[in-house]
Amino acid sequence: MRVPVVELGGAHWTRTSRGFHPAGDEWDGISRIFAEMSRAPEQTFARFINGVHAPDDVKSAAVSFIEGFNASNRNEVSVDWLNAEQRASREIDGDRSFRVLTGYGGVALHLARGLDIRFGSPVSEIRWQPGEVRVVTREATFRAARCIVTAPFAVLQQARLRLEPEPPALKAAREAIVTGDAIRMTFRFSEAAWTKAAPDISFIHGDADFPVWWTAYPVQRPVITGWAAGPKADRLQDASEEELKQTALQSLRNLLGEDPGQPEQSWFHDWRRDPFSLGAYSSVRAGGMAAHARLREPVENTLWFAGEAVATGHMGTVHGAIASGIQAARGIAGQIR
Ligand SMILES: Cc1cc2nc3c(=O)[nH]c(=O)nc-3n(C[C@H](O)[C@H](O)[C@H](O)COP(=O)(O)OP(=O)(O)OC[C@H]3O[C@@H](n4cnc5c(N)ncnc54)[C@H](O)[C@@H]3O)c2cc1C
Fold first, then answer.
1. Of 29, 64, 96, which residue sits at a domain end?
2. Burial level of 86, CB count in 10 A (0-12/13-18/19+)?
3. Domain of 218?
4. Cys-Cys crosslink for 306: which of 83, 254, 295, 324, Cβ 3.0 to 4.6 Å?
5. Do both 219 and 256 map to the same domain?
């Protein structure tokens, strides 16, 4: 089975104080800041950006990118970690984007071929000692000699899924890794107002409560998805879904500079309130790189951690999560050969 993907391309537009225009110029300014960051010592991004000599609007675009794309907080996130992420992204041409035409479910189905997957069966506890693991769910307890733990890091961090005893590497990573927040609002309209700006518009961003929007391009549908992450999502955490819908619509109006009309339908998700995520994805706090690296080591050759929070360089991504799972599986295969 092949998973059908298409490279995105298309126009990226941004709204700044100078109007609504293709995003290239702004990206050049951010890239110069990232080049300077690659030579900077470990510190928080906030500390680094305060010392940078660049126009204020470029600095604030860089902060928005770091906080929005990484769902992280400038006052916490590690410059070493951001540099590792930038290097890893360059190695795989990370600025190229692709869409999975079947939706991401197609990737999960592809990976799940031939496996015995139990749905609706949350694990409450993993009890272990060297060479022996018991995975406890409401219905059953599963026994194994080894186990790969792929629950979201926040689920482990907040002990929704408890490891008994707690491995020291997990304890250390608890302080080092932060799970950022993200909320998403998808609207379907009767027609796509945004194609008036550019028929191939794929991505819009600017200064708004929901600062980032994706169209369905290259699929031509009047569907658009708005996103707020990091501190922007935190600021909206007490609003009701209806209030968020109105806020998102206002953001879209402001960014487009015109009224897209009323949506025919909307869909909303808040990963922070989802008990099986408890946040969007992870980043590393300044000073936390060593503790993060320890999480990739097997625990007594019995437990392996995998998932986006464990990934090298590609934290917070699907490909990083998959690569970390492959690495853990190879670690186990190496033992049982
Ligand atoms: C809105 C949004 C957009 C994103 N866009 C992109 C993108 O374009 N490209 C990209 O690469 N990445 C993107 N990401 C990030 C990407 O989705 C994650 O990095 C990736 O899904 C992490 O995979 P994972 O296997 O580590 O965790 P998950 O995909 O979260 O999988 C963990 C699984 O564990 C299950 N689970 C939780 N608790 C328990 C329990 N107690 N017992 C049993 N199972 C449990 C969950 O239900 C879930 O199925 C996005 C994330 C968000 C929130």
1. 96
2. middle
3. 182-273
4. 324
5. yes
User: How far, in Å, from the CA of 317 to the mean position of ligand 1?
Assistant: 8
Asked whether residue 330 is domain-assigned, the answer is yes
Q: How many CA atoms lie within 13 A of 217 on its CB side?
A: 19
For 186-206, what is the mean pLDDT?
A: 88
Domain count, the chain: 3
Atom number in ligand 1 closest to CA 318: 11
User: Which residues sit opposite 15 in a β-bridge?
Assistant: 20, 206
Indicate which CATH number applies to the domain containing 192. 3.90.660.10
My answer on whether 162 and 203 are in the same domain is no
Given a contact cutoff of 8 angstroms between Cβ atoms, the answer to whether 280 and 180 are in contact is yes
| Shared-domain flag, residues 143 and 187 | no
| pLDDT above 80 (res 19) | no
pTM for the complete prediction?
A: 0.92
Q: Indicate which residue's Cα is closest to atom 22 of ligand 1.
A: 308
191 and 308 share a domain?
no
Q: Among 76, 96, 116, where does a domain finish? A: 96
Instruction: Give the pLDDT confidence of 115-168 residue by residue, as tens digits.
Output: 999 999 999 999 999 999 999 999 999 999 999 999 999 999 999 999 999 999
Same domain for 119 and 268, yes or no, is: no
How far is it, in rounded angstroms, from Cα 309 to Cα 290? 14
Mutate to test the pocket of ligand 1, among 318, 319, 322, 326 (most ligand atoms within 8 A of CB): 318
At 21 the pLDDT is: 64
Q: What is the pLDDT of residue 173?
A: 96
- C-alpha torsion sign, points 84, 89, 92, 98: positive
pLDDT score of 129: 98
Q: Given this model, what pLDDT does residue 201 score?
A: 86
Encode 245-275: b = buried (16+ Cβ within 10 Å), e = exposed: bebbbebbebbbeeebeebeebeeebbbeee
**124 and 241 housed in the same domain:** no
Atom in ligand 1 nearest the alpha carbon of residue 137: 42
- 175 inside domain: yes
